[in-house]
């Protein structure tokens, strides 16, 4: 068996692993990145980029279909599904190609293909052919789609998000199992392209929200467009001629059966730590088989083992994986001189229409009576109404003692942009009055944020040091 001795071994060559390797190299240490699959990140191959390509096509179709509200009639238009998916794959492959090319430019001695398994705290066996002895290890093994019962028994007959982009045509009907971000993004896109879609979930929740008012509005708004079978119990799923027959019991206890041409299981993704031999590291593992982990250092316990990216289960988003990779790589290279890092303000966006976004602390993370809430409905917000996309609700939170912004949850038009403004404001620890002193153009959707901030200022009854000036008024706030 070959033996490789390195300063830091990195399991995984995705976003987190690539950033960890770069930090190790910057520290003047020797990294070895071990990958068991093909190069190319989850985001580029099966996540962020191909899903947004599909959504962009769906948005184009939706705009044509809705042109009538502006007095514009478009006759004889149609969706060419073959061309839609061709573009999705072509652009996806382009993005993947850039990542693969960059990865293959990394010196060969810093890369190793194979499945790594811990045999000790800092020793790994790769495909029973190479033993890696490292000073520290970064685990950046990513995640994979979770297929729950009863769908696991018919896995060959259902799709996961990794599969949806390989379609050659649009199915007549599609059952989407899961009402989280992945299911809602892909399912709404398929519906807008022309597929009859039903969303199933054992839970009542739609999307990631914890704020009860935002949850209510989300259910109402999306329920106008989408068929939502929530609060259901799936009793059976079996392959039949023409697709998959689903048998479920609804929230009222009534049983139903229907055949769907395709079933997309979007029940979330699970961290890829099973099969890594973590039991051989000496770390104390919880009932899931995972060790305690500090997101500020990326370190597991006090061991020279660090977790980064989706495998950590912390915030499974590309920008978070990038940050965690840098933190893990830097601390692994300098172990035992481990440094705690201040994490950036949390921000998460779902590219449904309307967008969903959560920034900073969620409603459920705040202590009751410690915060005030300002809100704006987009139903009559000026710019939103002009564009015919006037749906949703923004709720923004501020600390009652300091008047600083601490979080927000929102369903609304262009919420991806509002989320960034709020994330920057929260990270800068702006007070409500300081945020109101920022410039707002007219007419823009961002004026809706100003309306929510004004509402929040009234709720806080700002006086003294917290008091500020906000003299601008305009129609359509």
Automatic annotation (TrEMBL):
Catalytic activity, EC: 1.8.1.4
Enzyme class: oxidoreductase
Sample GO molecular function, one term: dihydrolipoyl dehydrogenase (NADH) activity
Superkingdom to which the source organism belongs: Bacteria
PANTHER family: MERCURIC REDUCTASE, PYRIDINE NUCLEOTIDE-DISULFIDE OXIDOREDUCTASE RCLA-RELATED
Keyword set, alphabetical order: FAD, Flavoprotein, Oxidoreductase
Named cofactor requirement(s): FAD
Ranges for domain FAD/NAD(P)-binding: 7-325
Name the UniProt record assigns to this protein: Dihydrolipoyl dehydrogenase
Ranges of residues in domain Pyridine nucleotide-disulphide oxidoreductase dimerisation: 348-452
Signal sequence interval, chain numbering: none
Organism listed in the record: Marinihelvus fidelis
UniProt-listed InterPro entries: FAD/NAD-bd_sf, FAD/NAD-binding_dom, FAD/NAD-linked_Rdtase_dimer_sf, Pyr_nucl-diS_OxRdtase_dimer
